[in-house]
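Hello,

Following up on my earlier ticket. Below are the two sequence lines again, exactly as submitted.
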Amino acid sequence: MASAKSSGSKDTYSVILPTFNERQNLPIITWLLNRTFTEQNLDWELVIVDDGSPDGTQEVAAQLVKAYSPHVQLRPRTGKLGLGTAYVHGLKYAKGNYIIIMDADFSHHPKFIPQMIEKMKEGDYDIVTGTRYAGDGGVYGWDLKRKLTSKGANIFADTVLRPGVSDLTGSFRLYKRAVLEKLFESTDARGFTMQMALAVTAKAKGYSIGEVPISFVDRVYGDSKLGGEEIVEYAKGVLQLWWSI
Amino acid sequence: MTRAQQTISLALLVTSLYLSLYLGLIPLPAVVQEEIIPVLPLWSLVTFGAWLLVRLGWGMLTFRDTPDAYAELMEEIKLAKADLRVKGVDVD
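Thanks for your patience. The regenerated structure is below:
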């Protein structure tokens, strides 16, 4: 892919946003992205991968494509095919040499993107990930039970996998495009354990990962998708990674 | 080398080291051989468990809440909605 450039003038940042029923959040996150990138004078684009949302997400997305032309593209799919394949799908259409992965529901605030870009340049990291658990990272909107579950899960994964990353399940990340493409080739994991798999695989392959503390504001609209079943899936995912990577 | 391979090889190493002490292959003072070596595995397990709990407790104590981030976000959402309506995007 691209060789090292001395100035940032040719860098394009592609945000891949998988969506399912995000009609309320999508316009606002797009507005925030537009504001951040415009303020920073960065070339950007947004690839929305919608899995056939029944709530009208695609209609709103079409309006955003017009309102923020030429930065926004909508690449829909016909059914709920899952997060991992959504990223792969989005990557096909993304034109940038840097890829940003994040959630569409404000838990990940675009204001941290410039910090991540800065961090990446500082240390020439292959990946920069937002962390809720280090520095002045933090969370808003979690009760004690949720905090316990999350911290417990993180300690479990950290002990079993020793990944050297403080927030293993975090999904707010900036990747060099070539690195992400390589990782997708070698990782089979899909579903929400994919984020963990990407980080652990990256470490195993010797890629460098930098961290930026972020504040994670949970679920302004909508319900959290964390239940007993997810916890079991998570534990299985961690053990599978332990075995295979 | 996978994490599993790393962990298992380390475990095997520690186990053989322990066995050599347990079977008296290395001369040790009687107190150590009789009182300490036999309980070492259980003690290690308990200590490890306690360590994990300390980490969890510490994590709970130092967990940062970010109410400012929430307040800021609420303000931004208001601004965003106003601007988006002008641009012809449906917002609630």
